[in-house]
């Protein structure tokens, strides 16, 4: 059945496969089938040129389709990759978003360790020894601990 359809459609069979894959991308979103569909359309374009040539056998077409699909997927991923451009650069880096803010010590800094309260969270801090109630400025973050200096 498949060979009958392919022989009837000739070089247009790859175009049909490509358009079906592109249409399937709309039904099954994920932005992946589009690259495979474009690979099928590319083989279809070559089929229009070489369909009557002796070397243009189905095995060569299948190999080219596979190669084009892999290449199109890699190129497509590179083109559509998110480069981290966001309006909130510290979205998942809560500690880093606190750098530059000032707070009041909730516990004194003794032997280089203490606590501050920023917003609704208590943070462990390191810095120079200071009494409770001193104003400090956050100068760096290493994830969950903050480094402070006297404000």
TrEMBL record:
Keywords, alphabetical: Membrane, Transmembrane, Transmembrane helix
GO CC terms: plasma membrane
Family annotation (InterPro entries): Membrane_assoc_protease, NA-bd_OB-fold, NfeD-like_C
Top-rank lineage group of the source organism: Bacteria
Gene3D superfamilies per record: Nucleic acid-binding proteins (2.40.50.140)
Domain NfeD-like C-terminal, chain residue ranges per copy: 97-149
Membrane topology: Multi-pass membrane protein
Transmembrane regions listed in the UniProt entry: 12-28, 57-75
Coiled coil: none
Subcellular locations according to the entry: Membrane
Name of the protein in its database record: NfeD-like C-terminal domain-containing protein
Provenance organism: Rhizobium metallidurans
């Amino acid at each position: 059945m498949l060979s009958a359809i392919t022989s009837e459609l000739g070089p247009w069979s790859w175009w049909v496969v490509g358009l079906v894959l592109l249409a399937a991308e709309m039904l099954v979103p994920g932005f992946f089938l589009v690259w495979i569909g474009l690979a099928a359309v590319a083989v279809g374009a070559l089929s229009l040129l070489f369909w009557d040539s002796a070397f243009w056998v189905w095995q060569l077409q299948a190999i080219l389709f596979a190669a084009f699909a892999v290449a199109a997927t890699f190129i497509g991923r590179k083109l559509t990759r998110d480069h981290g451009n966001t309006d909130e650069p510290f979205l998942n880096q809560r500690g880093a978003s606190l750098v530059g803010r000032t707070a009041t010590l909730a516990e004194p800094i003794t032997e280089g360790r203490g606590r501050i309260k920023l917003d609704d969270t208590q943070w462990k801090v390191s810095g120079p020894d200071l009494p409770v109630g001193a104003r400090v400025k956050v100068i760096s973050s290493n994830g969950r601990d903050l480094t402070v200096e006297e404000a």
